[in-house]
Specification:
This protein has 174 residues and is α+β, with helices and mostly antiparallel strands. The protein is 15% helix and 28% strand. It has a six-stranded antiparallel sheet with strand order 1-2-7-4-9-3, covered by helices on one side. A three-stranded antiparallel sheet has the order 6-5-8, with no helix packed on it. The protein is globular, with a radius of gyration of 15 Å. The protein starts with 10 loop residues before the first strand and ends with a helix. The mean pLDDT is 96.
């Protein structure tokens, strides 16, 4: 029995480069209430991501300062609680994410936790490739990121829906 709602289609948002946070021309994806986290939520999300080829996992929250990753894509699966997270930098969008939601951030997508419930827990993971890097929005980091982001490979699978998932059709190089 699958832990993923099969009728789910992600919300897609393309954030523009704001001069400090580069973002990415490929869309940021959010699956709302896509994963059944009623039993062993952290382990459920970890199994799902692992089964779909995303690894180097961690359990935590989302940092409360603006940052992005310039060498790797990232997935955030909410295991418990809820949070308000600013995605896309200052000019982006604040979204409520809650248990069962999954956000997929193409390399360069800014994110920062604005507020969270006491029980908020996220499982983070990455597709195979370089290790996660953490960049704060500065002019120097932005200039370097503009060179590395186009080199980040498109993953071989969607961390939620696998090789036939929406990410495979929505993430294309322009």
């Amino acid at each position: 029995m699958s832990v993923v709602r099969t009728d789910t289609e992600p919300l897609t948002i393309v954030f523009q480069d704001d001069g400090l946070v580069p973002n990415n021309p490929m869309p940021f994806l959010v699956y709302k209430a896509a994963v059944d986290v009623s039993k062993n939520p952290e382990a459920t999300i970890e199994r799902l991501f692992g089964m779909n080829g995303w690894g180097a996992m961690w359990r935590n929250g989302v940092y409360d300062f603006a940052h992005y990753h310039a060498t790797v894509h990232e997935v955030l699966g909410v295991a418990r609680g809820r949070a308000r997270v600013q995605f896309g930098g200052d000019q982006g969008r604040a979204l409520e994410i809650a248990a069962g939601d999954v956000a997929i951030l193409p390399a360069g997508t800014g994110h920062q936790c604005l507020s969270a419930s006491d029980d908020f827990c996220v499982i983070g993971a990455y597709p195979p490739g370089p290790p996660m890097d953490l960049q704060r929005p500065t002019p120097e980091n932005h200039a370097r990121a503009l060179k590395t982001i186009p080199l980040v490979a498109i993953p071989a699978s969607d961390p939620v829906m696998g090789t036939d998932g929406p990410l495979m059709r929505l993430w294309r190089r322009t």
